[in-house]
Amino acid sequence: FHTGDFSLAACEAYSLRCWDLFGWDFIASQLAAVAIYRFPILLDAVAVAGARRGQAFLDFFGEVMTGVRSKAAFLQQPDLVRDIVLELFRQIWLQYIWGCT
């Protein structure tokens, strides 16, 4: 881009570099969107777990959602994954088994 070369070969090289650097984030975003579409209770679980964790979680979540951090950062925090999974089971119990909304 700095040289003003927008040929197909130059743009293809740029595209390949972008996919190498950020390709996983596109795939992770798509998988998350499909999961939330199919199972909206996931969004409830993340919201409740986030409310319990406080401002630090909201800051982290904002960085991940705006691209400052990789989407894989969620999976690199086992305590966060544990809290969300436990809250997911709690929400399933409350909403589907116990009948509370």
Write a compact overview of the structure shown.
The chain is mainly α and 101 residues long. It has four helices and no strands.
Distance between the termini: 53 Å
Total of helices: 4
Cα-atom radius of gyration: 19 Å
How many DSSP E strands? Answer: 0
**Main β-sheet description:** none
Structural class from helices and strands?
mainly alpha
Reading the helices and strands in chain order gives HHHH
The shape is elongated
Textual characterization of the structure:
- There is one protein chain.
- The protein contains four helices and no strands.
- Helix 2 packs across helix 4 (78-98).
- The longest helix has 31 residues, at 8-38.
- It has helices at residues 8-38, 41-53, 55-65, 78-98.
- By secondary structure, the protein is an all-alpha fold.
- The N and C termini lie far apart (53 Å).
- Helix content is 75%, strand content 0%.
What are the salient characteristics of this protein?
101 residues, mainly alpha, 4 helices
List the helices and strands and how they pair.
Layout: H1 8-38, H2 41-53, H3 55-65, H4 78-98
Helix pairs in contact: 2-4
